[in-house]
Amino acid sequence: MLEIRDLTTSYGPVKALDGVTFTAARGKITAVLGANGAGKTTLLRTVSGLIRADRGNTYLDGLDLARMPAEKMPGLGLAHVPEGRGVITELTVEENLRLGALGRADRSRPADIDRVYSLFPVLESRRSAVAHILSGGEQQMLVIARALMAEPKVLLLDEPSLGLAPRIVVQIFELIRGLVESEGLTVLLVEQNARSALSIADIGVVLDLGRLVAHDEAAALAADEKLRHAYLGF
Amino acid sequence: MQQLLTTSLAGLTLGMVYAAFALALVLIWRSTRIVNFAQAPMAMITTYIALLIVDAGIPYWIGFVAALLSGLVLGAIIERVFIRPVEGKPEMNAIILTLGLFVVINAVAAIVFGSHYRSFPVPFGLRGFEVGDVTVALTGFDVFSICSVVVVMMLLLALFRYTDVGLKMRASAFNQEVSRMLGVKVTGMLTLGWALAAVVGSLSGLLIAGGDLVYPSYMDSVVVYGFVAAVLGGLDSPVGAVIGGLLLGLGLSVVSGYVGSELVPLAALSILIVVLLVRPSGLFSHATARRV
Mutate which of B159, B169, B182 to test chain A, going by most A C-beta atoms within 10 A? Predict the structure, then answer.
């Protein structure tokens, strides 16, 4: 369970997040929606320690993550899949995956790379390829697979659908849904594409200029025509 | 024929030493985007440490190992104390800083060790091998130079390719933020990178000094040749640095053997200009692939 309380972050004089409070329940997908500049990416970057919050806390199963350095997060069970892929393109597919496993909390047993290959068979067939030759969809799969190598409890996903063909987006969303159901993973999903995000999410929160303006069941948000027109663009 | 052989062997040995120095520059450039001009005086300091040990009557090899270890420590200290504050700042700051360190370390060395010439010992003979009645221009120390550089390169290759630490160092060099997200302590990896680079730089300092004279600025020309070699290979590529070093060593040896040794610095400069004009990214750079 990821509890976000009164989180406030600024870039200079501009408040990018302003007192955001909500909880991402265990074993659920919580979609974070809103227009460009609403603060979605800033929210994830603050939670994962890449940006220092001015105020507020984040609790992962009761443990306060605020002011924890980013490099400690994987060991605490929090994995962040950044926007724009974040594959290390100079490394091979397998090296990216090995790197993902190095930060995991329990290093007493060897990393289970085969489990990840069984989830993403396309990666296994390209295991020794340098990552920059992968297609956009394959790179997205690689970053998700790499995050899973750390065996996280909470997965932060930033715009996994960005720039991908609809068919690939469906495939990736189904895979995430499957992981949530089979392993009780908690997912915080940031999406520009509100319609498809709400189709796989359990809960949705809507940000507008850094403030939380709605927090409800995904189905209820999708049914709220006024909210959809005002903030979600569909 | 004999002239050609002599020239090539001299070029090979010299090229290996330049390759080591270029590799030290490339290791630092790759991880921190800084050209470390202070690499030369750092190697000079560690060579003096070896010299002090050997002059005290302690065996050469202990001095040799001590120099490499002090390189490791010196590299880490320089990164922590001087480079850390300018990381992430405009690149010019770091360049001015390493140039400043170059001047300061040279000056301090002159105060501490004196600026007079001192001869540096060799562990092997300086006579060429004799094949039949011909003396080949390859001494025992030359063979040692080539082998030690090859061994160091193999060790680095194994470190980067097969170990977790090597993987973390490469990841940190390519993408600091993503590496942090994956739990890599990037600052530690940068320090380690500087430390290892300083070891490789120290090795080249010891090899240049062997059988020759040591004084506070004896490495100054090597930083120029090492830099040309690194640019030739494309600052980004360790393999390129090695090949660049070898090409430069052979090229300069040909110039010195056939044209005149006084033209060597000019030849190095000409090579640098030609490379920058024809292929500014160097022969082996991945720079274009990285912007994808």
Answer: B182
